[in-house]
Amino acid sequence: MEKTTLEISLSTPDDYAGLVEIDHLVWNEQTTPAPDIRWDSPQDYGRQFPAGSQIVARCNGKVCGYIFYKDVFPIPSNLHVADVAMAVHPDFHGQNIGTELMLAVEKSAKDKGKSKLSLRVLSTNEKAIRFYKKCGYLEQGRLVGEFYLNGQFVDDLLLYKHI
Ligand SMILES: CC(C)(COP(=O)(O)OP(=O)(O)OC[C@H]1O[C@@H](n2cnc3c(N)ncnc32)[C@H](O)[C@@H]1OP(=O)(O)O)[C@@H](O)C(=O)NCCC(=O)NCCS
Fold first, then answer.
1. pTM of the full predicted structure?
2. From the CA of 87, how far away is ligand 1's center (Å)?
3. Ligand 1 atom closest to 125 (CA)
4. Residue 138 Cα, ligand 1 centroid: separation in angstroms?
């Protein structure tokens, strides 16, 4: 699918159906330790992720990706760290949308006083690992054999980036 216009801004209720579509397409045993998660409806999604809680990318008006962050531990000594999660619609992979979303979340997190971003990625998710390393993330740890997926034990990589 061609990318012509890209708009990135906070989520609204109009985005929920597109965000549900992305989740149902991208999450599987290679990309998440909880591949069975399914949303019952856009409203169900909105209850978990209210408007404004995510940054959404839209190509020609179609929701094509999202990113958000949350506190790791809600204690004062850890408030400078934020944990990131993201996905891009498969029709739009490799078109720099993930990179644009990452830049947007870095700016938003910095504006909120965060100085370190962290994330967890399955060691089998090679595309995502390559993407994160390209974005400047480094490995800070590895939970060995943390998940049992597709008949094998899979490590969880802990990545971080100072912003
Ligand atoms: C990881 C992800 C967010 C990247 O988004 P994207 O919009 O495709 O990323 P970009 O177009 O900005 O890609 C930048 C780099 O990522 C890597 N990459 C992205 N898509 C790739 C693909 N399909 N195959 C191989 N490498 C890929 C490449 O290194 C690429 O650099 P290049 O352009 O020099 O080749 C996207 O693939 C995705 O949503 N994956 C499924 C969900 C997921 O795994 N999320 C992370 C869970 S921790």
1. 0.93
2. 9
3. 44
4. 16
66 lines ligand 1 (CB under 6 A): no
Dist. CA 79–CA 18, nearest whole Å: 31
Does 105 contact ligand 1 (Cβ within 6 A)?
no
Q: How far is CA 25 from CA 38, 73, 79, 87, in A?
A: 10, 30, 32, 10
Q: What is the pLDDT of residues 125-144, one digit of tens each?
A: 999 999 999 999 999 999 99
Which atom of ligand 1 is least distant from the CA of 32?
47
Tokens of 111: 């504006």
48 Cβ closer than 6 Å to some ligand 1 atom: no
> Considering the chain, what is the average pLDDT of its residues?
96
Work out the angle between the directed axes of helices 97-111 and 126-134 (0-180°, nearest 10).
60
Choices 3.40.630.30, 3.30.200.20, 2.30.42.10, 3.30.450.40: CATH for 6-162: 3.40.630.30
Confidence band (pLDDT; 50, 70, 90) for 36?
confident
Q: How far apart are CA 147 and CA 156, in angstroms?
A: 8
Distance between CA atoms of 3 and 61, rounded to whole angstroms?
11
- Tell whether ligand 1 has an atom less than 6 A from the beta carbon of residue 161: no
